[in-house]
Amino acid sequence: MTAAIQATAEPETPAAQDQSRPRRGRHPLLRYALRRVAAAVVILLVLSVLVFLACSVLPGNAASAILGKQASGVALAHLEREMGLNRPIAYQYWTWLTGLVHGNLGNSAAGYAAGGQISVWSQISGKLANSAILATAAFVPIVAVSLMLGVGAALRAGRWVDHLISVTTLVPAALPEFVLGALLVGLFFGSLHLLPPVSLIPPGGSPLDTPSLLVLPVLTLVGVCVGPAARMIRAGMLDALEADCVAVARLNGIAERRVVIRYALRNALAPSVQVVAMIAQYLIGGLLIVEYMFGYPGIGQQLVNAISIHDNLEVQSVSMLLAAIYVGINIVADLVVMTLVPKLRTGGA
Amino acid sequence: MNSTDRTPAPLQGPSRRAFLHRTASAGLLLGAGAGLAACGHQTSALSTLAKPRRGGRLRIGITGAGNQESLNPSSAAYTLINLAMATAVFDTLIILNPDLSLAPGLATSWTSNRPATEWTFDLRPGVTWHDGKPFTASDVIYSLRWMAAPGNGLAGLVSNVDLAGIRQSGTSKVVVPLKTPDLLFPQTICDGYIIQDGEKNFVHPVGTGPFAFQSLIQGEHSVFLRNPHYWDHPKPYVDELIIYSLASDTARVDALISGQIDVCSQVPFTQARTGLGNGFSLLRSPGQSAYAFYMAVDKPPFDDVRVRQALRLLTDRQQLIDVALDGFGTVANDLYGRGLEFYDNGLPQHQHDVAEARSLLRAAGHGSGLTLDLQTSDIAPGVTAAAALFQQQAAAAGVTVNVTQANPSAYFNPAELYLKMPFAQTFWSGYNTLQLFYQYALMPGAAGNETHWDSNDTTSWIQAASSASSAAAAGRQWAAVQQQQWSEGGYIWWANVDNLDAASDQVGGIRPGPLLNLGLPTSLANAYFIA
After folding, report:
1. How far is CA B65 from CA A72, B221, B414, B418, in A?
2. Which of A96, A177, A190, A278 has its CA 20 to 30 A from that of B150?
3. How far is A52 from chain B (nearest CA, A)?
4. Can you give the pTM of this predicted structure?
5. Contact check, Cβ <8 Å, A76/B248
6. Does the ipTM exceed 0.90?
7. Which of A60, A67, A297 sits opposite B219 (nearest CB)?
8. Residue B4 confidence (pLDDT) above 50
């Protein structure tokens, strides 16, 4: 994910560049967006090479994983040929990449194990949807609670409310997901018998049919995320409260309530957007443990399953998909920040 | 190879009755051990008394296998979830009951000629496939040849079959000629699933079994509907079968306790020990599945039989069972196949004897110490814990063991690590006869020859035993093979592990057995809900 990290560090540069250059066109935001998208495409292309190579250098392949103890001789050679694993590496890469661009993710090893064909997309689409539902269900409360607690703590910085918020959010955040999850299961299922301890989705159903299945996974994610997120928002809000404009507003006798909402909150929004983006990015990769714990059939588990049997086409395609979402969130977050901060938007002082 | 020219002890082959008796007494012994272990080990006595009831939706949670989950019966042997799905959809000619007795399946009877070189199966009339086609002899002939194809996991079952000579006789008989005589061919063919003539693709499988395939989503669940035309009327009892794929042990047990599933396979040792609470029963059976350390006998220092014997002596099997298996196992005697016909129960149990191990090591020139590299992997519960404990046990005899952990998917993959490790661990289960195991594990070039065993004597004994024309003759040869393995083999078989599953008390008909978890292969058709 080096490429993605680079992308995170980027929001400063466009402003700097714009300052040194005469402005062209009337839509600097659009221009910026286009440039970011172009950069993202390059990043994803580089990433596709890295992901492909990483999958290729792993010892063993899907054919031998499917055949297990029978993986030798004619049988292995035959299945490798059938799966195209005997082709040159460059050819395999090109076939995969062109397929990916055309929306064809190739065939999953699951199909070869069954003696037929099962597309990677049919293998992962349901799981992607499940993960998206869980991520969204967790994202909304995490953002809402973090913002409320972060802003609340900043307004009462150093007072007992601040300390209380710190302690109650940082304790669960300090626990690994599986410990927090186990504690929640112990409380809500073991003691109270209120919620199912496992998120089994009945055949033909969606997690939304039985929302109670989502509660414990979501609570676990909320517990893990809210602490650090609220702290970062608190820091941003404190900075904003100490800014010159807030001091000036106060000196001008504007009511405190109005000062907070009109001046401090507005200026704290930009750093908060970055925090929200970080939460979204965590939810892309961070679901794996929660999915495993609660038996929730999501994309994280699917990716681990695919890796364990060297189902490279699936691993590569899922990795690229997640990376694209990751990079996309970055771009959106930076654009939102640009819109919120006039200085960045206009590209001048 | 340093196998001596030992003449096999003239032991009488055990009779079927003696064999069943022994299995029963092993069960009793284990029952007593269970009482000592902890609370919560009820066997489902209630469920065997109640009357089967029709209807309901049976939900079973089994350890998942992700993208390797499939209904291709050729790979059923490798994972329990695939095996369970295969037994739901497909039938075999002969059924192996959990007590290891044989029952008619798609074949109503089977007979052989005098030297057992030709077996004739009478096929059950009136059976239809799930798609409505009639079941015929050509399906059986096709299936036997399909099993033999390279890469098919069932190839070992038909390796002795003269494939070209298989023929139909009359309207409903299939004649299967063998290359060499085989008295136990019926036991062997119990694992051979019968598929429809011409079938290669199992994405939408069609079988004759108790349940018709409905859907499979790898890593989530598979759904099966009752086959109303099943030949074994009134089975199956439940209307619908759902198999959930659950990777996490905790999630599987929690799903049972919270009522999200009715049956939970492979209960972890810790939960089996602490108990499952009211309304649930542990289904426990002494298992035939066995744990071993193995040494490649062609690699130093394991090419010296004294080193192999010393390592066996410094292994404290009971401690390994108590710690790594939480007590859910029985001490093994460096031989595979306890409970199977011709297994030699007469050999004295190898004991833990550090002093003797030290003196053997001294004699082998390792008096000043010996350093070994053991490759372990998380291939079955307790395997890595056993490696860590073995390291301590070996240290007591001056043997330094360096343990390295390998990726489970590479561990049994011959393209990666399998058969290339001089000192490693293994876990075997599901063999119905000694010959299936020994032909696979001790013949030169065999796909499962973990100990790199290569002895003309052993090979000829195994061949003679497999093709013996009388049980007595077979018994003598198997005694020779086992005597040799017991005294100088490359395996340290330290435990037979119990099969541990659990079910809601509302579920009846699942009889735990030594061969497989969940009382497979018969349990799915037999399971029912108590009113």
Report:
1. 22, 11, 19, 20
2. A96
3. 19
4. 0.85
5. no
6. no
7. A297
8. no
